[in-house]
Amino acid sequence: MTPLGAKLRKLRAERGIALKDMAKALNVSSAYLSALEHGKRGKPTWFMVQRIIAYFNVIWDEAEEIQRLAEISDPKITIDTAGLAPEATELTNVLARELGRLSAEDCKALRDEVMRRAVKR
């Protein structure tokens, strides 16, 4: 499940909305919406994100959070390490190979560490 998918599922649960009802309101198939939540589809378009925000009738902070989560929810990414240090290429390959074996806690810790180090520069 993607970060956006988790948020959509949470919003639907809080409001007691069935996936099929939301899909109908957004004029998409239930299969598409389910695939979007589970990370089986690519990142949604800007237009779709706006429709989701309007559907839930959220404003400001929550709307920005949904937009941010959509940006980081592409389940299939490509990383071009050309021109970077050899260690960057090695790191991306290790992550690609081993990511599925890490716990959610490990992933959060790695993400936080990368972000902490990136901000220092």
Describe the fold and architecture.
The chain is mostly helical and 121 residues long. The protein has 2 domains: 3-71, lambda repressor-like DNA-binding domains (434 Repressor (Amino-terminal Domain), Orthogonal Bundle), CATH 1.10.260.40; 86-120. The chain has 7 helices and no strands. It has helices at residues 3-15, 19-26, 30-38, 46-56, 60-71, 86-98, 104-120. The protein is elongated. The chain starts with a helix and ends with a helix. Pfam families: HTH_31 (PF13560). This is XRE family transcriptional regulator. It comes from Pelagibacterium lacus. GO terms for molecular function: DNA binding.
* Helix and strand element order: HHHHHHH
Structural class estimated from helices and strands: mainly alpha
CATH T-level fold name of the largest domain: 434 Repressor (Amino-terminal Domain)
Main pleated sheet:
none
* DSSP summary: helix tally: 7
Task: Say how many strands there are.
Answer: 0
Helix content: 55-70%
CATH homologous superfamily title of the largest domain: lambda repressor-like DNA-binding domains
Mean pLDDT: 93
Backbone shape: elongated
CATH architecture of the largest domain: Orthogonal Bundle
Number of domains: 2
Q: Which band does the percent of strand residues land in? A: under 5%
Q: Which CATH top level class of the largest domain fits? A: Mainly Alpha
Q: Distance between the terminal alpha carbons, to the nearest Å?
A: 31 Å
Radius of gyration: 17 Å
Enumerate the spans where pLDDT stays under 50 for 5 or more consecutive residues.
none
